[in-house]
Design goal:
The protein contains 12 helices and 5 strands. It is α/β, with parallel strands linked by helices.
Length: 281
């Protein structure tokens, strides 16, 4: 398969912006500067299209969901997705205005929740880079940015990753840890470049320069921390860790039943009431 572009998937605060920036430095086209989500706290931008982020919020709203109140995992997902009124054809037209040429890289964590819709809109000639980060590091970051409790943030991490992994079946997928990009940018570059060039994507030469906000620069939690502080997330953490590497056609393992505490935590969030927000420090 010759890919026409790359989706970067991962939970919020997992380093997806840094990975998207790195992929763009390898030669793929990110969002246009005048369409890039940015702010004074992140002058280099999130490498995320404002147009498509707005559309994803609209799609989630039609499902009765939001980024902080995600759709259900498992068999119940289809019922929520059926409420989307915007057609894949309409979404494809919006996407082509944002990314008019092949060789694009698009990142929006919300796409983890909408992957079946976007696969219908874009077709299967796309690849994905799935970015993993320790759930406690994600939770700490969400606590600072959104004043979100650890248990709720870990539940969001679990739901996002379950949906992304389940719905990426059959796609060419590179599963990568954010820590790997931080610790060895040249090695990460070689691995990512090999995966992407193997899909027929034209790449530039050179190594990537990692740029992330200070809060994301260092991960501090280990597997043992997950086992002690959020043991319900340990099974998914270990399963995801075992998926790291390139997959010509992604074949996700059976993830088992989602822990019941995930739905209990997420049910406490109101899709119409966003969490607090403050600029990342």
């Amino acid at each position: 398969m010759k890919a026409k572009g790359v989706l970067v998937l991962g939970m919020h605060r997992s380093g997806t912006s840094a990975v998207t920036r790195a992929v763009s430095q390898l030669g793929l086209t990110p969002s246009r500067p005048n369409d890039s989500v940015r702010g004074p706290w992140n002058p280099t931008g999130h490498f995320e299209s404002q147009t498509l982020m707005t559309l994803d919020n609209h799609l989630l709203g039609q499902m009765g969901c939001s980024w902080w109140h995600p759709p259900p995992a498992g068999d119940a997902y289809g019922g929520a997705a059926a409420r989307i009124q915007f057609s894949p054809r309409q979404a494809r037209a919006v996407f082509r205005r944002a990314y008019p040429r092949r060789g694009w890289v698009w990142k929006d964590p919300r796409a983890c929740l909408l992957l079946p819709f976007w696969r219908a809109a874009l077709g299967d000639a796309v690849a994905a880079v799935v970015v993993l980060r320790n759930p406690l590091d994600v939770a700490r970051s969400l606590q600072r940015r959104n004043e979100m409790g650890t248990s709720v943030a870990v539940a969001l991490w679990e739901r996002y990753n379950r949906l992304a992994v389940a719905h990426a079946r059959g796609l060419p997928v590179l599963v990568t840890r954010f820590d790997d990009l931080l610790s060895d940018p040249p090695g990460w570059s070689r691995s990512a470049a090999g995966f992407l060039s193997g899909l027929g994507l034209r790449l530039a030469h050179g190594e990537v320069a990692v740029g992330v906000d200070a809060e994301l620069r260092h991960s501090t939690h280990s597997r043992d921390d997950v086992a002690r502080q959020c043991p319900g997330a340990l099974a998914l953490h270990d399963t995801l860790s075992g998926l790291v590497g390139p997959w010509p056609a992604f074949d996700p393992p059976e993830l088992g039943r989602e822990p019941p505490e995930v739905e209990r935590e997420l049910a406490m969030l109101d899709a119409a009431t966003p969490p607090a927000w403050r600029p990342p420090s």
